[in-house]
Amino acid sequence: MKRTKKVTPEVSAKAEGYIANGYQRLLTFEVPGGGFSWFGNAPANKILTSYGLMEFSDMSKVHDVDSKVIDRTQQWLARQQQANGSWSPDTSFINEGATNRFNSDIVRITAYVAWSLEVTGYQGPAVDNAKLFIETRLIDTKLGGTAKPDVYTLAVLANFAVDYAKDPAFTEKVMQLLLDAKTEQGDQVRWNAEETSMYATGASAAVETTGLAVQAILKRGSDPAVATKAMNYLVSKKDASGAWGTTQATIMALRALLLSADKAGGTAKGAVEVVLNGKVAGRLALTSENNDLLHQFAFKEVDARSANTVEIRFNGEGSVAYQVAGRYFVP
Q1: Which label site among 70, 120, 189, 299 has the fewest CB atoms less than 10 Å from its CB?
Q2: pTM score, two decimals?
């Protein structure tokens, strides 16, 4: 909101209050000796710690975060690295009644931890060592890896490779594997994952994974047609409440949308008409001042027992995202 100059004092105060309280609460989950766990008790969980590290790093861009928290968390993760450059699976985690076979996927675990260290500014050999381990596993299946990791792992690998950016050949290989794994239907592209690291499956896993994958594509600045179709998919999956079903799916979709808006500049300008059953029911002039806001048209006098046709017409420049939601009540 600050970047788009849409922030107001009221919204800013509310958001900063949430962040300040949240930051203090998050600190209570740090484990004595290093790392974070779900309840602040040992042992710390490496994946959760990596997620928290990225969270604190992002938070530091808008709120005061003790740099020592980030530094000691990075150092704790680096100390957990194995001699071959990998990170071993955690032995303590929440299964929530499900058997998660990906808790033992060393390539996924290593890529996620290395990505967290890379994007939070870690300075040390751990990331380079992890890259060498991953690269070897991708090439040589005899070493226990696979030439084609699962789709969610590919999305994590792609973000790591793009942010690492020191080895163009490595990045190219990973990105090609990611593109080969996409599912394309009409004007939409998605990545179907069996299960994410946040335990999502089904439609939520597809949204979360697609949001993660398209971030890598957007950051690299390649394959704009694929990125556009992926954004079409994400927008189409937004529910009537304005979210994407699960917390992680919503976070990854929002991150992708924000990154896309940063790249595109939000330039939609022109006239919008909403037509209900052949008659204009609403008009809107989109300008640079209001093209990033939610504009809602509610039609209450609609007979739900018969068919209704809604049209959205746009005459102007740029791309307009829209959603049609129906709501009804049964006695």
Answers
A1: 299
A2: 0.81
Predicted confidence (pLDDT) at residue 37 exceeds the cutoff of 80: yes
Q: Can you spell out the DSSP letters for 86-148?
A: --PPPS----TTS--GGGG-HHHHHHHHHHHHHHTT--SSHHHHHHHHHHHHHH-GGGT--SS
Contact (CB, 8 A) for 73 and 56: yes
Integer Cα distance of 47 and 93 in angstroms: 10
**Six token digits for residue 36:** 């974070």
CA 44 to the chain's CA centroid: 24
Instruction: Tell me whether strands 310-317 and 279-286 are parallel, antiparallel or unpaired.
Output: unpaired
Using only C-alpha atoms, the chain has a radius of gyration, in whole angstroms, of 22
Q: Tens digits of per-residue pLDDT, 220-267?
A: 988 888 999 999 999 999 988 889 989 999 999 999 998 888 776 556
What are 296's two structure tokens? 């809602």
**For residue 134, what pLDDT is reported?**
94
Residues 6+ apart with CB under 8 A from 30: 36, 40, 69
Q: Between 182 and 324, whose confidence is greater?
A: 182
CA dist 10 → 15, 17, 74, 143, 295 (Å): 9, 11, 35, 56, 20
Q: Report CA-CA distances (Å) from 329 to 245, 294, 304, 326.
A: 21, 25, 10, 11
